[in-house]
Amino acid sequence: MESFSGPVTTIRDLTPDVRQIDLTLLAPPDIHFAPGQFISFEVDREGSLTPATRPYSIASPPSLSKQIQLVFNRVPGGPGSSYLFSLQEGFDTTFKGPVGSFTLRDSARDILFVATGTASHRYAQCCGRVNAGPKSDSSAG
Ligand SMILES: Cc1cc2nc3c(=O)[nH]c(=O)nc-3n(C[C@H](O)[C@H](O)[C@H](O)COP(=O)(O)OP(=O)(O)OC[C@H]3O[C@@H](n4cnc5c(N)ncnc54)[C@H](O)[C@@H]3O)c2cc1C
Questions:
Q1: Which atom of ligand 1 is nearest to the CA of 55?
Q2: Which CATH number do you get for residue 92?
Q3: Whose CA is closest to atom 2 on ligand 1?
Q4: N or C: more exposed end of the chain, with fewer CB within 10 A?
Q5: CB of residue 80 inside a 6 A radius of ligand 1
Q6: In sequence order, what E strands does the chain have?
Q7: Number of domains in the chain
Q8: Residue 101 falls within a domain, yes or no?
Q9: What are 7-64's pLDDT values in tens digits?
Q10: Does 82 fall in a domain?
Q11: Cis peptide leading into 28, omega within 30 of 0?
Q12: With a 6 A CB cut-off, is 38 part of the ligand 1 pocket?
């Protein structure tokens, strides 16, 4: 798993408790992933010396390799969502990834996606790949 760093470049509130942010990659400057994969932050948690690891799905398409978009909801008191909601434009971030094998495989079979809340963004990427046709995205695994 690779480590990445880069600042928050855009923040958009989609609802009062769902936020979208863009992270522009600095080091390394590119990321290659398959729709459905995720990245992880290590965040401080109150009363513990060890950080908590929190995964977040990449909501942007693999074609945008120089930045990633995340969509997350507020979980009161949760260290992961509190960290993400504390970020302001220009703040630096570090994260690891991309990981996850729950990705779309090439198949001629009908596909039914079921998702609630912020998870629907992750499936939007898979749907984009279905519409584009099999193996249209060389970075997809
Ligand atoms: C593979 C993967 C991908 C994920 N991708 C995303 C993503 O794209 N966007 C996103 O927002 N989250 C995503 N999550 C969930 C995310 O990793 C955290 O679990 C979530 O942000 C809560 O973390 P926390 O530290 O704030 O709260 P925690 O300390 O984990 O939870 C605090 C309390 O809130 C409850 N809780 C946990 N999650 C939620 C929730 N979503 N809504 C309401 N209550 C909750 C817990 O049961 C607990 O009681 C993903 C999880 C996995 C495993």
A1: 17
A2: 2.40.30.10
A3: 55
A4: N
A5: yes
A6: 2-15, 18-24, 38-43, 52-57, 67-73, 92-99
A7: 1
A8: yes
A9: 999 999 999 999 999 999 999 999 999 988 999 999 999 899 999 999 999 999 999 9
A10: yes
A11: yes
A12: yes
